[in-house]
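User: Fold this; tokens only.

Assistant: Input:
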Amino acid sequence: MEIYRKTWAEIKKNHLLHNLDLIRSQFSSDTFLCPMVKANAYGHGDAFLAKQFQEWGVQNIGVCLIEEGLLLRKLGIHIPILVFRGFDKKGAAAMLEHRLTPVVSHLDQLKILGELNQSIDLHLKFDTGMNRLGLSFEQTFEILQILKQNPQLHVQGLLTHLYQSEDSLLENSQSKIQIEKLHLIIEQLKSVTDQYHVLNSGGIVCKMEMLKKNQKSGFLFEKNWGLRPGLLMYGYNPVVNSSFEFKPALTLKSHTSVVRQVKKGEGVSYNHRWVAEKDSSIAVVPIGYADGWHRLLSNQSEVLWNGQRAPIVGNICMDYLMVDVTGFAVKSENEVLFLGESSSGEFISAFEVAKKAQTIPWEILTSIGERVPRIYL
């Protein structure tokens, strides 16, 4: 793809592989591992990431939508793809045709799969406190009956979703309570599978921290819990004060379109929410909220302009934003960096940007629009 607008995201393959290898190094080779590539691989490009994971020997990947799984199959991904969103009869038929693995979170879905009367691998998701998706403990008897009546349905694993996994090191951890509930479910369904995947990014890091300290007791060690890394896979560690260094893989860049001279008292951008307090140099940069750089960041965030921090001023527009570069040396090519590390070693984290946007780093990364080309290094 030709790039005519100098705005793009660079993805470092070596950082992705570092993150994957760091996780692999802490767990046994028989531990279930399913990196999540939903939402365009958290903004990093699902087609590329899925191919890389496949080449690197990953056995499973996860998506949310059937549509995401179908795209990856079309692009040549042949490893198991778990689809975590619910489905109807039409969706079930599509998954079966394209060898996608359904994650069942409602009894009606299990019945639909039984009606297809074909051999199907599936996973059963249980709600243990998230109160979003998932089967319940009270439904285990009926689940067993449906499976008994439909021997063509093969349960590959049981799972739940930890809603506060970052606290897994605490004595009064909410994750501990959730896993205690899962144990009751496992006891009822132990005849159908012996594989259970529970740990998302926060849970993975907490277990890694305990392993590093040679602490091998507690709810994180009661079974060989499987892993579903999301944010962690892309280099951002959600556990505060963790000793493990994951490397952010994405750098978001643009360049200056033009530098305007604005006199003291003049305003910039829509509604003049920023007014120059002195004669100022204002760089116009071709990226905006249509590319995922939220308007909420107007007048309260920074970029790296040729490696130096400079503030965004005025309202962020759909296709442009403005940066105050007063007093900076203007070069013929002025790189503007929004996420990642500059050549000078300065770094802007998705955590930093998320705090200023009153959100979380997951949203910052997944907001980067598809019209921003991804370049893989």
